[in-house]
BURP domain-containing protein (Cryptomeria japonica), 327 residues
Amino acid sequence: MATRSTFLLLLLVGVSAIISWLHQVGAVSSNVAELQRQRWRGKLPEVAIPQTLAARLSPLSLTELQSLAAGLKKIDAASFAAHKFCGAAGLICSEDVSFPARAGSNFANPNAELGEIEEHVFFDKEELRESGEMILPDLSPCKYLVSFLPSELAQMMPPFSTANVSQILNLLNISSGSNLSRSMVSTLEMCEARGEEGEVHTCSTSVEGMVEFVVSRLGSDVDLFTDTSVVGSDQRVRVTKVSKRENMVGGKPPVTCHNFAFPYGVSYCHSIKGSEVFDLQLEVVQGNEKVRRNATAVCHYLSNGAGGNQAACHPVFGEMLLWTPKA
Ligand SMILES: *[C@@H]1O[C@H](CO)[C@@H](O)[C@H](O)[C@H]1NC(C)=O
Ligand SMILES: *[C@@H]1O[C@H](CO)[C@@H](O)[C@H](O)[C@H]1NC(C)=O
Ligand SMILES: *[C@@H]1O[C@H](CO)[C@@H](O)[C@H](O)[C@H]1NC(C)=O
Ligand SMILES: *[C@@H]1O[C@H](CO)[C@@H](O)[C@H](O)[C@H]1NC(C)=O
Protein backbone atom coordinates (compact mmCIF):
# COMPACT_ATOMS: atom_id res chain seq x y z
CA MET A 1 0.00 0.00 0.00
CA ALA A 2 2.77 2.37 1.10
CA THR A 3 4.81 1.69 -2.00
CA ARG A 4 1.79 2.25 -4.20
CA SER A 5 1.00 5.68 -2.74
CA THR A 6 4.69 6.57 -2.89
CA PHE A 7 4.68 5.56 -6.53
CA LEU A 8 1.59 7.70 -7.20
CA LEU A 9 3.12 10.62 -5.37
CA LEU A 10 6.33 10.32 -7.38
CA LEU A 11 4.30 10.10 -10.57
CA LEU A 12 2.40 13.22 -9.61
CA VAL A 13 5.59 15.11 -8.76
CA GLY A 14 7.13 13.95 -12.03
CA VAL A 15 4.15 14.99 -14.13
CA SER A 16 3.88 18.41 -12.54
CA ALA A 17 7.63 18.92 -12.97
CA ILE A 18 7.27 18.12 -16.67
CA ILE A 19 4.29 20.46 -17.01
CA SER A 20 6.12 23.27 -15.28
CA TRP A 21 9.17 22.67 -17.48
CA LEU A 22 6.98 22.77 -20.57
CA HIS A 23 5.57 26.07 -19.39
CA GLN A 24 9.06 27.42 -18.86
CA VAL A 25 10.20 26.49 -22.32
CA GLY A 26 6.97 27.86 -23.70
CA ALA A 27 5.87 24.55 -25.17
CA VAL A 28 2.35 24.86 -23.84
CA SER A 29 0.42 27.91 -22.87
CA SER A 30 -1.97 28.01 -20.00
CA ASN A 31 -4.06 30.84 -21.35
CA VAL A 32 -4.67 32.89 -24.44
CA ALA A 33 -2.52 35.83 -23.32
CA GLU A 34 0.47 33.49 -23.11
CA LEU A 35 -0.37 32.19 -26.58
CA GLN A 36 -0.42 35.78 -27.87
CA ARG A 37 2.93 36.42 -26.17
CA GLN A 38 4.44 33.29 -27.70
CA ARG A 39 3.36 34.33 -31.17
CA TRP A 40 4.80 37.82 -30.61
CA ARG A 41 8.10 36.32 -29.46
CA GLY A 42 8.09 34.05 -32.52
CA LYS A 43 8.07 37.08 -34.84
CA LEU A 44 9.79 39.70 -32.68
CA PRO A 45 12.09 37.89 -30.24
CA GLU A 46 14.01 41.08 -29.44
CA VAL A 47 11.05 43.34 -28.71
CA ALA A 48 9.33 43.41 -25.33
CA ILE A 49 5.54 43.81 -25.32
CA PRO A 50 4.87 47.31 -23.98
CA GLN A 51 2.68 47.70 -20.92
CA THR A 52 -0.15 49.38 -22.83
CA LEU A 53 -0.44 46.33 -25.07
CA ALA A 54 0.20 43.72 -22.37
CA ALA A 55 -2.85 45.09 -20.57
CA ARG A 56 -4.92 44.33 -23.65
CA LEU A 57 -3.98 40.70 -24.21
CA SER A 58 -6.96 38.37 -24.02
CA PRO A 59 -8.19 37.33 -20.54
CA LEU A 60 -9.59 34.07 -21.98
CA SER A 61 -8.45 30.63 -20.89
CA LEU A 62 -7.68 28.04 -23.54
CA THR A 63 -10.82 26.13 -22.58
CA GLU A 64 -12.93 29.25 -23.08
CA LEU A 65 -11.23 29.84 -26.41
CA GLN A 66 -12.18 26.34 -27.55
CA SER A 67 -15.80 26.62 -26.49
CA LEU A 68 -16.19 30.12 -27.97
CA ALA A 69 -14.65 28.98 -31.24
CA ALA A 70 -17.11 26.06 -31.31
CA GLY A 71 -20.00 28.48 -30.59
CA LEU A 72 -18.91 30.85 -33.36
CA LYS A 73 -18.60 28.01 -35.84
CA LYS A 74 -22.29 27.16 -35.77
CA ILE A 75 -23.01 30.83 -36.02
CA ASP A 76 -26.53 31.73 -35.08
CA ALA A 77 -26.68 35.22 -33.60
CA ALA A 78 -29.93 34.50 -31.76
CA SER A 79 -28.40 31.75 -29.66
CA PHE A 80 -24.88 33.10 -29.32
CA ALA A 81 -24.42 34.36 -25.77
CA ALA A 82 -23.07 37.79 -26.71
CA HIS A 83 -23.13 39.11 -23.18
CA LYS A 84 -21.06 36.22 -21.84
CA PHE A 85 -18.65 36.39 -24.77
CA CYS A 86 -18.05 40.14 -24.31
CA GLY A 87 -17.49 39.73 -20.58
CA ALA A 88 -15.17 36.74 -20.80
CA ALA A 89 -13.11 38.13 -23.68
CA GLY A 90 -12.65 41.63 -22.19
CA LEU A 91 -14.68 43.36 -24.90
CA ILE A 92 -16.89 46.43 -24.63
CA CYS A 93 -20.32 45.76 -26.03
CA SER A 94 -22.37 48.24 -24.02
CA GLU A 95 -24.09 50.62 -26.34
CA ASP A 96 -23.68 53.92 -24.56
CA VAL A 97 -19.90 54.22 -24.43
CA SER A 98 -18.35 57.24 -26.10
CA PHE A 99 -14.84 56.55 -27.26
CA PRO A 100 -12.63 59.65 -27.43
CA ALA A 101 -12.16 61.19 -30.87
CA ARG A 102 -8.56 60.06 -30.87
CA ALA A 103 -9.75 56.44 -31.07
CA GLY A 104 -10.80 57.12 -34.61
CA SER A 105 -10.82 59.70 -37.29
CA ASN A 106 -8.29 62.21 -36.07
CA PHE A 107 -5.09 60.26 -36.58
CA ALA A 108 -6.12 58.73 -39.82
CA ASN A 109 -7.21 62.05 -41.20
CA PRO A 110 -5.58 65.22 -39.95
CA ASN A 111 -7.71 67.15 -42.42
CA ALA A 112 -10.96 65.97 -40.87
CA GLU A 113 -13.56 68.50 -39.82
CA LEU A 114 -12.20 70.41 -36.87
CA GLY A 115 -14.94 69.24 -34.52
CA GLU A 116 -13.90 65.62 -35.03
CA ILE A 117 -10.29 66.27 -34.09
CA GLU A 118 -9.35 66.17 -30.46
CA GLU A 119 -7.67 69.42 -29.57
CA HIS A 120 -3.94 69.84 -29.89
CA VAL A 121 -3.24 66.36 -31.21
CA PHE A 122 -1.55 67.86 -34.25
CA PHE A 123 0.89 70.70 -34.00
CA ASP A 124 2.65 72.94 -36.41
CA LYS A 125 6.02 71.91 -37.81
CA GLU A 126 7.10 75.50 -37.02
CA GLU A 127 6.79 74.74 -33.33
CA LEU A 128 9.38 71.98 -33.60
CA ARG A 129 12.40 74.14 -32.85
CA GLU A 130 14.33 75.26 -29.82
CA SER A 131 12.22 77.80 -27.88
CA GLY A 132 9.16 76.81 -29.86
CA GLU A 133 5.95 76.39 -27.91
CA MET A 134 3.11 73.98 -28.30
CA ILE A 135 0.12 72.74 -26.39
CA LEU A 136 0.13 69.03 -25.68
CA PRO A 137 -3.12 67.07 -26.18
CA ASP A 138 -5.00 65.31 -23.41
CA LEU A 139 -2.49 62.57 -22.62
CA SER A 140 -4.69 60.56 -20.27
CA PRO A 141 -5.11 56.91 -21.19
CA CYS A 142 -8.24 55.87 -23.07
CA LYS A 143 -10.99 54.94 -20.59
CA TYR A 144 -12.21 52.14 -22.79
CA LEU A 145 -9.41 49.69 -23.31
CA VAL A 146 -10.70 46.55 -24.89
CA SER A 147 -8.77 43.32 -25.24
CA PHE A 148 -7.55 41.90 -28.50
CA LEU A 149 -9.19 38.66 -29.57
CA PRO A 150 -6.77 35.84 -30.33
CA SER A 151 -6.35 35.60 -34.11
CA GLU A 152 -8.39 32.39 -34.37
CA LEU A 153 -11.45 34.14 -32.89
CA ALA A 154 -10.82 37.40 -34.76
CA GLN A 155 -10.88 35.41 -38.00
CA MET A 156 -14.20 33.83 -37.10
CA MET A 157 -15.95 37.15 -36.60
CA PRO A 158 -18.02 38.45 -39.53
CA PRO A 159 -15.80 40.24 -42.07
CA PHE A 160 -14.37 43.50 -40.72
CA SER A 161 -16.10 45.74 -43.25
CA THR A 162 -18.86 48.35 -43.44
CA ALA A 163 -20.78 45.92 -45.66
CA ASN A 164 -20.92 43.46 -42.77
CA VAL A 165 -21.35 45.78 -39.83
CA SER A 166 -24.92 44.61 -39.23
CA GLN A 167 -23.68 41.02 -38.84
CA ILE A 168 -21.15 42.18 -36.26
CA LEU A 169 -23.81 44.21 -34.43
CA ASN A 170 -26.23 41.26 -34.43
CA LEU A 171 -23.64 38.84 -33.18
CA LEU A 172 -22.64 41.11 -30.29
CA ASN A 173 -26.23 42.20 -29.64
CA ILE A 174 -25.51 45.90 -30.18
CA SER A 175 -28.34 48.03 -31.61
CA SER A 176 -27.63 50.00 -34.72
CA GLY A 177 -27.86 53.72 -34.10
CA SER A 178 -26.31 53.42 -30.62
CA ASN A 179 -23.20 55.43 -29.79
CA LEU A 180 -21.08 52.30 -29.95
CA SER A 181 -22.43 51.31 -33.35
CA ARG A 182 -21.69 54.80 -34.67
CA SER A 183 -18.08 54.55 -33.44
CA MET A 184 -17.83 51.14 -35.06
CA VAL A 185 -19.04 52.43 -38.42
CA SER A 186 -16.64 55.36 -38.26
CA THR A 187 -13.74 53.00 -37.47
CA LEU A 188 -14.68 50.74 -40.37
CA GLU A 189 -14.94 53.72 -42.71
CA MET A 190 -11.48 54.97 -41.72
CA CYS A 191 -10.09 51.48 -42.17
CA GLU A 192 -11.58 51.26 -45.65
CA ALA A 193 -10.59 54.77 -46.73
CA ARG A 194 -8.07 54.98 -49.52
CA GLY A 195 -5.51 56.74 -47.38
CA GLU A 196 -3.09 59.50 -48.23
CA GLU A 197 -0.65 59.49 -51.09
CA GLY A 198 2.33 57.33 -50.12
CA GLU A 199 0.43 55.79 -47.21
CA VAL A 200 0.11 52.08 -46.60
CA HIS A 201 -2.33 51.22 -43.84
CA THR A 202 -4.12 48.30 -42.34
CA CYS A 203 -6.56 47.68 -39.53
CA SER A 204 -5.68 44.59 -37.52
CA THR A 205 -8.21 42.90 -35.29
CA SER A 206 -5.52 40.87 -33.53
CA VAL A 207 -2.07 41.42 -32.07
CA GLU A 208 -0.82 38.74 -34.44
CA GLY A 209 -2.15 40.69 -37.43
CA MET A 210 -0.55 43.90 -36.22
CA VAL A 211 2.85 42.25 -35.79
CA GLU A 212 2.56 40.72 -39.24
CA PHE A 213 1.94 44.16 -40.78
CA VAL A 214 4.87 45.71 -38.92
CA VAL A 215 7.21 42.90 -39.98
CA SER A 216 6.00 43.21 -43.58
CA ARG A 217 6.91 46.93 -43.59
CA LEU A 218 10.06 46.97 -41.48
CA GLY A 219 11.32 43.42 -41.03
CA SER A 220 11.81 42.01 -37.55
CA ASP A 221 14.78 44.20 -36.63
CA VAL A 222 12.71 46.98 -35.10
CA ASP A 223 12.52 49.32 -32.15
CA LEU A 224 9.17 49.90 -30.49
CA PHE A 225 8.49 53.14 -28.66
CA THR A 226 5.57 54.09 -26.40
CA ASP A 227 5.12 57.01 -24.02
CA THR A 228 2.47 56.91 -21.33
CA SER A 229 3.68 59.94 -19.37
CA VAL A 230 0.90 62.42 -18.68
CA VAL A 231 3.23 65.25 -17.65
CA GLY A 232 2.09 68.39 -19.45
CA SER A 233 -1.25 66.94 -20.51
CA ASP A 234 -3.39 69.71 -22.05
CA GLN A 235 -0.71 72.24 -21.14
CA ARG A 236 1.48 74.69 -22.96
CA VAL A 237 5.09 73.45 -23.13
CA ARG A 238 8.33 74.98 -24.32
CA VAL A 239 10.67 73.04 -26.56
CA THR A 240 14.24 73.13 -25.28
CA LYS A 241 15.83 70.66 -27.67
CA VAL A 242 14.88 68.92 -30.91
CA SER A 243 16.77 66.12 -32.58
CA LYS A 244 15.70 64.37 -35.70
CA ARG A 245 16.28 60.63 -35.87
CA GLU A 246 18.49 60.19 -38.84
CA ASN A 247 18.55 56.43 -39.17
CA MET A 248 15.45 56.28 -41.31
CA VAL A 249 16.30 58.92 -43.88
CA GLY A 250 16.05 57.27 -47.27
CA GLY A 251 15.11 54.08 -45.46
CA LYS A 252 11.83 52.61 -44.46
CA PRO A 253 9.30 55.04 -43.02
CA PRO A 254 8.24 54.37 -39.42
CA VAL A 255 4.99 52.58 -38.67
CA THR A 256 2.58 54.10 -36.17
CA CYS A 257 -0.29 52.12 -34.71
CA HIS A 258 -3.37 53.73 -33.18
CA ASN A 259 -6.06 52.22 -31.01
CA PHE A 260 -9.40 52.54 -32.81
CA ALA A 261 -12.86 52.33 -31.27
CA PHE A 262 -14.46 48.88 -31.56
CA PRO A 263 -15.88 46.26 -29.17
CA TYR A 264 -12.67 44.24 -29.62
CA GLY A 265 -9.13 45.44 -30.15
CA VAL A 266 -8.51 47.15 -33.48
CA SER A 267 -5.17 48.62 -34.35
CA TYR A 268 -4.90 51.09 -37.23
CA CYS A 269 -1.28 50.91 -38.36
CA HIS A 270 0.14 53.02 -41.14
CA SER A 271 3.40 53.99 -42.69
CA ILE A 272 3.64 57.14 -44.78
CA LYS A 273 6.51 57.68 -47.15
CA GLY A 274 8.89 60.40 -45.98
CA SER A 275 7.67 60.55 -42.37
CA GLU A 276 10.18 61.79 -39.82
CA VAL A 277 10.67 61.14 -36.11
CA PHE A 278 11.87 63.81 -33.68
CA ASP A 279 13.03 63.45 -30.09
CA LEU A 280 12.10 66.47 -28.02
CA GLN A 281 13.04 67.85 -24.66
CA LEU A 282 10.23 69.89 -23.19
CA GLU A 283 9.71 72.19 -20.27
CA VAL A 284 6.33 72.50 -18.61
CA VAL A 285 5.49 75.17 -16.08
CA GLN A 286 3.51 73.63 -13.21
CA GLY A 287 2.76 76.20 -10.54
CA ASN A 288 6.09 77.79 -9.67
CA GLU A 289 8.02 74.83 -10.93
CA LYS A 290 9.51 74.04 -14.30
CA VAL A 291 9.17 70.33 -15.01
CA ARG A 292 11.16 68.68 -17.76
CA ARG A 293 10.00 65.83 -19.85
CA ASN A 294 11.05 64.17 -23.05
CA ALA A 295 8.71 63.35 -25.87
CA THR A 296 8.83 61.90 -29.34
CA ALA A 297 6.90 63.25 -32.29
CA VAL A 298 6.16 61.94 -35.76
CA CYS A 299 5.68 64.20 -38.77
CA HIS A 300 3.85 62.98 -41.84
CA TYR A 301 4.09 65.05 -44.99
CA LEU A 302 0.82 64.92 -46.83
CA SER A 303 0.16 66.17 -50.29
CA ASN A 304 -1.99 69.29 -50.13
CA GLY A 305 -3.43 68.56 -53.54
CA ALA A 306 -1.71 71.59 -55.08
CA GLY A 307 1.66 69.92 -55.63
CA GLY A 308 2.94 71.00 -52.21
CA ASN A 309 3.27 69.20 -48.91
CA GLN A 310 1.62 69.85 -45.61
CA ALA A 311 3.21 68.59 -42.40
CA ALA A 312 1.03 66.84 -39.86
CA CYS A 313 3.02 66.29 -36.66
CA HIS A 314 1.80 64.60 -33.51
CA PRO A 315 3.40 63.40 -30.29
CA VAL A 316 3.53 59.69 -29.51
CA PHE A 317 1.36 59.20 -26.42
CA GLY A 318 -1.18 56.98 -24.71
CA GLU A 319 -1.85 53.70 -26.46
CA MET A 320 0.00 54.71 -29.59
CA LEU A 321 2.88 52.53 -30.81
CA LEU A 322 5.79 53.84 -32.85
CA TRP A 323 7.84 51.27 -34.74
CA THR A 324 11.10 52.22 -36.41
CA PRO A 325 13.88 50.28 -38.09
CA LYS A 326 16.40 49.34 -35.41
CA ALA A 327 18.84 52.17 -34.73
C1 LIG B 1 -23.91 59.19 -26.74
O1 LIG B 1 -22.79 60.06 -26.78
C2 LIG B 1 -23.09 61.39 -26.48
C3 LIG B 1 -21.88 62.25 -26.79
O2 LIG B 1 -20.68 61.66 -26.41
C4 LIG B 1 -23.51 61.45 -25.03
O3 LIG B 1 -23.79 62.78 -24.66
C5 LIG B 1 -24.78 60.61 -24.88
O4 LIG B 1 -25.18 60.57 -23.54
C6 LIG B 1 -24.53 59.20 -25.38
N1 LIG B 1 -25.80 58.50 -25.47
C7 LIG B 1 -26.10 57.49 -24.68
C8 LIG B 1 -27.41 56.83 -24.92
O5 LIG B 1 -25.37 57.12 -23.81
C1 LIG C 1 -20.76 40.31 -45.74
O1 LIG C 1 -21.49 41.24 -46.51
C2 LIG C 1 -21.73 40.84 -47.85
C3 LIG C 1 -22.40 42.01 -48.56
O2 LIG C 1 -23.45 42.52 -47.82
C4 LIG C 1 -22.60 39.58 -47.85
O3 LIG C 1 -22.81 39.14 -49.16
C5 LIG C 1 -21.87 38.51 -47.04
O4 LIG C 1 -22.69 37.37 -46.93
C6 LIG C 1 -21.51 39.00 -45.66
N1 LIG C 1 -20.70 37.98 -44.98
C7 LIG C 1 -21.01 37.50 -43.80
C8 LIG C 1 -20.09 36.46 -43.24
O5 LIG C 1 -21.94 37.89 -43.15
C1 LIG D 1 -29.67 41.59 -26.25
O1 LIG D 1 -29.68 42.75 -25.45
C2 LIG D 1 -30.95 43.03 -24.87
C3 LIG D 1 -30.83 44.31 -24.07
O2 LIG D 1 -30.20 45.31 -24.81
C4 LIG D 1 -31.42 41.89 -24.00
O3 LIG D 1 -32.72 42.16 -23.53
C5 LIG D 1 -31.43 40.59 -24.81
O4 LIG D 1 -31.70 39.50 -23.97
C6 LIG D 1 -30.07 40.37 -25.46
N1 LIG D 1 -30.13 39.19 -26.33
C7 LIG D 1 -29.21 38.24 -26.30
C8 LIG D 1 -29.38 37.12 -27.26
O5 LIG D 1 -28.26 38.25 -25.54
C1 LIG E 1 15.70 63.36 -21.73
O1 LIG E 1 16.59 62.81 -22.66
C2 LIG E 1 17.94 63.20 -22.44
C3 LIG E 1 18.77 62.72 -23.61
O2 LIG E 1 18.49 61.39 -23.91
C4 LIG E 1 18.39 62.66 -21.09
O3 LIG E 1 19.72 63.03 -20.84
C5 LIG E 1 17.47 63.23 -20.01
O4 LIG E 1 17.80 62.66 -18.76
C6 LIG E 1 16.01 62.96 -20.32
N1 LIG E 1 15.19 63.72 -19.39
C7 LIG E 1 14.14 63.20 -18.77
C8 LIG E 1 13.38 64.13 -17.88
O5 LIG E 1 13.78 62.05 -18.91
Residues 96, 98, 179 surround 2-acetamido-2-deoxy-beta-D-glucopyranose (ligand 1) (CB under 6 Å).
